[in-house]
Design a protein that fits this description.
4 helices
Length: about 160
């Protein structure tokens, strides 16, 4: 992929100029070689870059899809990744040569937004009923069962006696 699409030229942003960003990148730049995580759809990026005093500001909206295994049946599930209103600030003194490469920043924010779990069929995996006996029963919102704070070994300790 042409590396120029990931560059922001600081000199072009002087005097209050703003650079509008609207790009579509192939997922290869993400450099993901995982069995349980794949990117096959393009990454759509819209946003702007501008200077705010001595900082380069990026304001981005990012959309793509990833494929991860269903947490119930392990079948591949396509999951949307939508990041809106992402801001990234970089001090100008950290930008060498007046050119900021945002490829690694974009890669990082996408990978940080990959969901940990997903379920196929929009949360209605057909295997769920087969595996239901292995799941923890869901508590109702009114039950006190969910209010347990867990094991508290020092709950009965009287701190006034220690003084």
């Amino acid at each position: 992929m042409d590396d120029d699409h990931f560059k922001i030229y600081i000199d072009q942003l002087r005097d209050g100029e703003m650079e509008n960003l609207s790009e579509e990148f192939t997922p290869e730049f993400l450099d993901v070689n995982e069995q349980d995580l794949k990117f096959v759809d393009p990454v759509h990026l819209h946003g702007e870059a501008y200077l705010a005093e001595d900082m380069l500001m990026l304001h981005l909206d990012i959309e793509t899809n990833c494929i991860i295994p269903c947490s119930i049946c392990n079948e591949p599930v396509k999951v949307p990744i939508e990041i809106s209103g992402f801001y990234h600030a970089v001090p100008l003194e950290e930008i060498k040569g007046g050119i900021f490469h945002f490829q690694e920043t974009l890669r990082e924010i996408i990978l940080l937004n990959v969901p940990i779990l997903a379920e196929c069929k929009l949360g209605k995996c057909p295997q769920r009923s087969t595996l239901q006996k292995y799941f923890k029963p869901e508590s109702s919102p009114d039950s006190k069962e969910g209010d347990d704070d867990g094991y508290r070994p020092f709950a009965n300790l009287d701190l006034d006696q220690i003084k």
